[in-house]
Amino acid sequence: MKNIILFGPPGAGKGTQSEFLVEEFGFVHLSTGDIFRYNISNQTELGILAKKFMDEGRLVPDSVTIDMLSLELLKYPNSEGFLFDGFPRTKDQANALDSFLGERNLEITAMIGLEVPDEDLRLRLLERGKVSGRPDDANIEVIQKRLDTYYNETAVVKNHYEEVGKYISINGLGTIEQISIALKSEIGHL
Ligand code: ADP
Questions:
Q1: For residue 56, what are the CA distances in angstroms to 90, 141, 145, 147?
Q2: What is the rounded distance in angstroms from the CA atom of residue 100 to the CA atom of residue 72?
Q3: Residue 119 Cα, ligand 1 centroid: separation in angstroms?
Q4: Which of 25, 26, 59, 171 lies most in the core, judged by the most C-beta atoms within 10 Å?
């Protein structure tokens, strides 16, 4: 069983590539952004709380995100492997994830980071904003805030897995298919 974290800045292609990886390897895909958006569209208490952070390009507080993820994990006691997308985004989230998995005698197999230059990310997110309906993609200031949040708070999470030899970097520039082939090959060899 492989448990993978797909890592990278906003717009790196994590959501797009996750779909191909689920198809290939049968992962349970846990995207915290998708779970928050589901809660927003259903106007749950969690959704109402998360929305104000997301609309500003800030992280939803760790306590809320970690509780949500732990409940989500409990729904899949028989998973053949998890694909985490958008989580962990802070050092505390990474520690929490390691301990949730540890309690079930599981661990992260690898963190795979999609590397894409900022300029390309801004353009991709603005393009996505034209069709996605996501308020956080529609405005260049919010996009910049999300990139700043990534570099200030999230990028360090890479060190957490690098220190234990579990970080793999993939070039996130290229066609969707090229990147998908590279990802499948890396994961296939783990
Ligand atoms: P992107 O990677 O394009 O920013 P996501 O769907 O992963 O898109 O995240 C959208 C927003 O949801 C983030 O900007 C943040 O506000 C919130 N969010 C998602 N995952 C987390 C997380 N692990 N911790 C805190 N906030 C999160």
A1: 18, 9, 7, 12
A2: 11
A3: 20
A4: 59
| Closest residue to atom 15 of ligand 1, CA basis | 59
- Does 172 sit in the ligand 1 pocket, CB within 6 Å? no
Q: How many domains does the chain have?
A: 1
Give the list of residues 6+ apart from residue 175 with CB closer than 8 angstroms, or none: none
pTM: 0.97
- Note down the domain range covering 73: 2-184
Q: What is the CATH number of the domain that holds 153?
A: 3.40.50.300
Assess whether the C-beta atom of 51 lies below 6 angstroms from ligand 1. no
Percent with pLDDT over 70 in the chain? 100
Asked whether residue 189 is assigned to any structural domain, the reply reads no
CA distance 181 to 52: 37
Residue 188: the pLDDT is: 98
Residues of the chain whose pLDDT is less than 70? none
